[in-house]
Amino acid sequence: MERKVLVVFGASVIIAVIAVTYLVAQISKNQERITNSGEVSGRILTAEGKPLPKAKVFADKLNSPLGRRPSVLTNQLGEFRIKNLEDGIYIITAEKTDEGYSASDSVFHNPNQLNTSHITISDQSLVTDVTVYMPPKATKLIGSLSDKSFGSAVGDATIKVCREDQPSNCFVTGLNIENKRGGFELLLPPVPVTIEVTSERYKTKFMRSFQQTSLGSQELRVLLERKSN
Amino acid sequence: MRKYFFCLILAGSFCLSISLDVKATVYTHANVGYEPEIGAVRAFVGTQADYDTTLYYCSEAYGYVFQDGVEIGGLYVYDEGGGGYQACVGRAMTETYFPYDPNAEYDIESFHEVDVIFHQVYLEYYDYYNYIEYTYGEQIMFPSNYSFVGLGPPQVSGVRDILLGVITGAFTAGAVAGQPHHLKLVSDNITTASCGSVRRLMKFRVVDSTGRRTGRVKVVETIQDHRYPSIRYPNIYNGCQGSYYTPSRCREVDRDNTFTDQLWVGCPSAGDPCGFMLFRSQWWWCPRGTPQVSLTANVYDVTHGRVAVNGNTAPYSAGTDFY
């Protein structure tokens, strides 16, 4: 008799465990759908008020600066919509570096006037009509690094550009043109800068008081001298 | 003894009712590629349901084709049976052609639906296999075909069209892209924020094993112990902000097939030596229905005054492969 009671009890426990597991799975599945459903939409405009197509728009969660930045590209009308945002306060910024528009939150390019917009997502809310104005177009510096002795392109280097009015305000990048060895591009701020090029096998090169021209882009060819053995 | 068997049968039935919920299957297909015989780009979308599904649903497929990120056309097709109760044949396939530019890249993004049939008895839409509960337009990756299975129980549905999944595919550099394999660096920029903390932005592209960019897939990050990668952390403490960072869930890359990984303690910041502890960041591709696929794993050192990736504080060159 005791054995039968035990068997019935055991079977009931198994059924209960399976049922609870199933219910928990369903609840967590539903919760997954409920969170991450906030949304922000709006437009990206140039300083002149024209829509900016194919700009990259970011929604950075305040106090959560690590990890992937939620982002989308604007359409032909400069409109964007970023979906699946968790609850929180977000900073909306934009950039289109290939056309000379630096990131609207770039301290290096616009230290005194950051063009950002703060929004709050709560309870799966939809925030619409957010407008971000881009900073004025910057001059694009198109550079190439070559070996002074052989003329061959340098394969690896760091380019550090610092504002002369704020020497600790710098922008550092690597060789960033994928199909052009030794090539780099960056957007210059509207003030004189110092450019420092470092590479493991070469002597560091400094260029002071480098100033942008009124042209949309300017080229810079840098010859690096090999370190002596 | 009879009670013993009764309990076993009861338990077994319960388990079966949960695990054996495979009712029917829908296959979805989409691709874009160059057809040398006619010198054009061919785009194809299709949704094909099995017999059981066809009894209660009609198939539908539509998609958009992009050239260098700009939409150049669309495709749409409804069930060959035309619709109606038990009239659909469960097959919806179409193709279209576009002029070929050898210097351009082509993408396809397709959407696959089953349409719930109006039930004559209930006088409402009837989601017999409860597809709406099972799927919310999750993404799958060409060339994988995926079987959708119903969960049940049957229910009346508030909507007619149920989006089963989205397929993305790419034709770049003269060939159809393969499965996501690793990440390729697009840019690596470092600046100093207004509060003095170092901010590093690494833009990545998802590529196949040959380095060709893939379609628009979903990726996710996990955080692990830098010495014992099997130890996963749900979040990581930011000593500068006094807050925790929790990686977000699977999310699509942008239409230019890139995403940006931000390595920063943020502002305001108390200054050195605050920040995150050393950790291992792993990026994964999130295909539907199969386990996540690792794309790359790197050790991040993110503090107020220093951001290092695998020990390197200097930016990497564009085109660097991260495995």
Secondary-structure map:
The complex is a heterodimer of chains A (229) and B (323).
Chain A: H1 2-34, E1 38-45, E2 56-61, E3 67-68, E4 71-73, E5 79-85, E6 88-95, E7 117-121, E8 126-133, E9 139-147, E10 158-163, E11 170-174, E12 183-188, E13 193-199, E14 202-210, E15 217-224
Parallel strand pairs in A: 1-8, 9-15
Antiparallel strand pairs in A: 1-5, 2-4, 2-6, 6-7, 9-12, 10-11, 10-13, 13-14
Chain B: H1 2-19, E1 26-35, E2 40-49, H2 51-56, E3 57-67, E4 70-78, E5 91-99, E6 106-116, E7 118-119, E8 124-127, H3 131-134, E9 138-141, E10 155-156, E11 161-172, E12 175-176, E13 182-192, E14 198-207, E15 218-225, E16 232-233, E17 236-238, E18 243-245, E19 251-252, E20 258-263, E21 279-285, E22 293-302, E23 307-309, E24 321-322
Parallel strand pairs in B: 9-11
Antiparallel strand pairs in B: 1-2, 2-5, 3-4, 3-6, 6-11, 7-8, 8-10, 11-12, 13-14, 13-24, 14-20, 15-16, 15-19, 15-21, 17-18, 21-22, 22-23
Task: Explain how this protein is built.
The complex is a heterodimer of chains A (229) and B (323). With 229 residues, chain A is mainly beta. Chain A has one helix at residues 2-34, and strands spanning 38-45, 56-61, 67-68, 71-73, 79-85, 88-95, 117-121, 126-133, 139-147, 158-163, 170-174, 183-188, 193-199, 202-210, 217-224. The N and C termini of chain A lie far apart (92 Å). By secondary structure, chain B is mainly β. Helix content of chain B is 9%, strand content 47%. Chain B has 3 helices and 24 strands. In chain B, a hairpin with a 4-residue loop joins strand 17 (236-238) and strand 18. The interface between A and B is large, with 51 and 54 residues. Strand 3 (67-68) of chain A pairs antiparallel with strand 20 of chain B.
